[in-house]
Design a protein that fits this description.
heterodimer; A: alpha/beta; Protocatechuate 4,5-dioxygenase, Chain B; two-stranded antiparallel sheet; 10 strands; B: mainly alpha; 0% strand; elongated
Chain lengths: 273, 100
């Protein structure tokens, strides 16, 4: 039987790797300090594997095939190496991935499985900061965040609840950690690129910290895109983690609007029931 | 008109490795991609087949690195961003120049 021992949500802005010094150094430093703190609690939790909820930015998936949910089942997971993270072959955990995949499908979530899922900065950037020694095997779970039809946030939180059950039912990894990556506000590839909306970000974080699931579930894409940019679609991964952790609260380690990273950057540790 | 094929081309050009993108100008890279898509060898390997049927004006968007034109045409912004990154194009500056 498995146990969920640690949960967190983090921004995956690649600028955190590429631009470590700049005009808003104080903000950057607070974010890096939060990464240090999160890394420490992850190590203390002594997980056997890390399930990462992220998205793909048209690196691995394209219009030729874009499943709503995809789990990476490979023993090795190659990264794309963006933002200077370097192309790596990370350790996967096929036995855990397979068990989760089967359980999720039987629970009513039509998750696709990929034997060779490459990982973009949604995974590689947080991993570079969270487990720089690549010591933990990773099971990635991709959630579509940019290309409609997008799964509703409530559906993502429900996926998280089923994921938690799947984690507890499997016997391949005794201690499992989970992290959701993305957000918060950012506009990329559009004329508004560079815009950040701290007002929305702080409001979202308040809802998330007190786990106001009714309010979070009701966030619609029109509001998200208008207030936080197309990049806010990535907050779906946060809802998956919240559902998995039990929706009992979270603790903000950092929130900083960093212009050089073009992202309202946040790290949150999520309480686990 | 095939926005899908244009986005397919942009996707492959953006995710190809450094060697596949040399020379680094978009026009040459697109030429190589189209040649590859018509390869008789790949025709025997359905899993690797790449179907590209670009209209002339669509090909021009890629050949000229016209990221503002791509955006206006309806190419997904993430694809535009990736293409710009692959070919070292400052897409935001180009957007500004185009009045976006």
């Amino acid at each position: 039987m498995g146990e969920l021992v640690w949960a967190a949500c983090v921004s995956h802005a690649g600028g955190q790797l590429r631009v470590r010094h700049g005009e808003q150094q104080d903000r950057m430093d607070r974010v890096y300090a939060a990464w240090d703190a999160l890394r420490a609690t992850l190590q203390e939790a002594e997980p056997d594997a890390l399930v990462m909820i992220g998205t793909d930015h048209f690196q691995t998936f394209s219009y030729d095939l874009m499943p709503v949910f995809t789990i990476g089942r490979g023993a090795e997971l190659q990264t794309w190496g963006e933002f200077g993270s370097g192309i790596k072959r990370l350790r996967g955990m096929p036995e855990l991935a397979d068990a989760l995949h089967v359980d999720l499908v039987h629970s009513g979530f039509d998750v696709a499985g990929s034997a060779d899922m490459r990982l973009d900065h949604a995974y590689s950037c947080p991993l570079a900061l969270l487990t720089p020694d690549d010591s933990l095997p990773v099971v990635p779970l991709s959630v579509v965040a940019f290309v409609p039809p997008l799964p509703p946030l409530a559906r993502c939180r429900a996926l998280g609840i089923s994921l938690r059950t799947a984690i507890e039912r499997q016997e391949s990894a005794g201690r499992v950690a989970i992290v959701g990556t993305g957000g918060i506000s950012h506009w990329v590839g559009v004329p508004e690129t560079g815009r950040i909306n701290p007002e929305f970000d702080r409001h979202f974080l308040e809802l998330f910290e007190r786990s106001d699931v009714a309010a979070l579930d009701s966030l619609d894409d029109a509001t998200l895109i208008r207030e936080a940019g197309p990049g806010a679609g990535e907050l779906r991964s946060w809802l998956v983690v919240l559902g998995a952790a039990g929706s009992i609260g979270a603790r903000r380690l950092a929130y900083e609007p960093v212009d050089a990273w073009i992202t309202g950057t946040s790290l949150v540790e999520v309480a686990v029931t | 008109m095939s926005l899908l094929d244009l986005q397919r081309a942009i996707y492959h050009l953006s995710t190809a490795g450094e060697q596949a993108r040399r020379p680094t100008d978009p026009a040459a890279a697109l030429t190589r991609l189209i040649e590859l898509s018509r390869s008789e060898v790949l025709a025997d390997l359905p899993a690797f087949q790449l179907r590209l049927e670009l209209e002339p004006h669509e090909a021009e968007l890629v050949e000229h690195g016209d990221v503002a034109g791509m955006y206006r045409y309806g190419v997904h912004p993430n694809l535009v961003r990736n293409f710009a990154g692959a070919f070292r194009i400052d897409y935001l500056a180009r957007y500004r120049e185009a009045g976006l």
